[in-house]
């Protein structure tokens, strides 16, 4: 069970690699879509050939990333779960993804199902009505030139996870001397080529049932309307301390649970896929379909991340003891600006979610309410972060149809709601937010920047206690040999916003956006490549 928990958190971390890429690509797409909209830039600019060619090129590059997301997730999943020799795992995952879909394709061909026999026209010729024919045709796709089931990102994750299992078992295998060349890390892709096509054959047999199950869950959430958005928004915040919110997010963004749409006879599954298709193929997706998808995306986060949490930061500052206000001011200002601009909230959330369950639950419920109200007001703002960048690029530059002003209106309401509720609870329940800690905790000095990396390593139990170091957007993720050697107070003295022990061997130290630099310096000090 402990190993399983560790693997789940490693998987959640791995998902951040492709997400960080497509989040940036999504912003490029949003800006490009706005610049090609005559209502925003004017007819004269829209008629300029060279600028429009450049913008079109940018859209094609970003569109290619979204079209191949399943492969990106396969590679990321394998890298995240590989114990060592991660480049080999990535290489094997690419092979595994391709050969798995070859197995699916071969099974479909044996059933008489090909790209030619599953077009809407061919199915109608067999007696299907138009709607049923289009829905059936949408179940299949050409992936890297291979005719296969439309498994979207889930297919990539399956290939990546299975490749990681093979890799971890086989990368140290030694073969007899005569064939020793094929042992070790070279053995991994060989086994992958043998196993993954068979997995594809099995998937081809069971995928229709899996697809029906996912579609049923998606239909259930879809029928729940705004309440589905409320449940999603609340659950996503409640899962923040565990790191499992990444998995919930990807499920909604890339599976039928987040919505289904048909574009040019091809089915798009998942809220983010639908939204990005509306950017890469303007006019191809009805606005109502896009709105159904964006109820799970950035629009529900904007009132909370741009307005609510900065107001909570102000409340924490005002509730701090006078002698600590200067220190707390610097901390809260940095965290509030990060939340407002980029939508990265962990540096601020970890200041209160572990010290006050009441504030934690209140914040989660207000987040869910925001998702529900933005859906109720028919907003159409996509992408994944929810900060000012998303509001400007995908809301304001998207024009009136995005109804972006409602997010600001709710945000202005959330400012006093967050500020007064947080300040009241902190003072009434004597919550030990920054600047209100006990005297023993207050006495913990902050180390100098030059000594920080040494102290971080010391706080993790020393170099001999550290097995692996990595990071996501805001957290230093470390696998240690013995958890009792980890000292929270020492780590907090290095400027951390919180320490989260997610299993008996996995600990996360929350530093905020600067964590990438910290992780690199820790690895360098440990001699980790």
Could you explain the architecture of this structure?
- This protein is 63% helix and 7% strand.
- With 529 residues, the chain is α+β, with helices and mostly antiparallel strands.
- It has 3 domains: 223 residues, no CATH class; 219 residues, no CATH class; 82 residues, 2-Layer Sandwich (Gyrase A, domain 2), CATH 3.30.1360.
- The strands form 3 sheets. It has a 4-stranded antiparallel beta sheet with strand order 5-6-8-7. Strands 1-2 form a two-stranded antiparallel sheet. Strands 3-4 form a two-stranded antiparallel sheet.
- Strand 5 and strand 6 form a beta hairpin.
- Helix 1 crosses helix 6, helix 7 packs across helix 10 and helix 23 crosses helix 25.
- It is globular, with a radius of gyration of 25 Å.
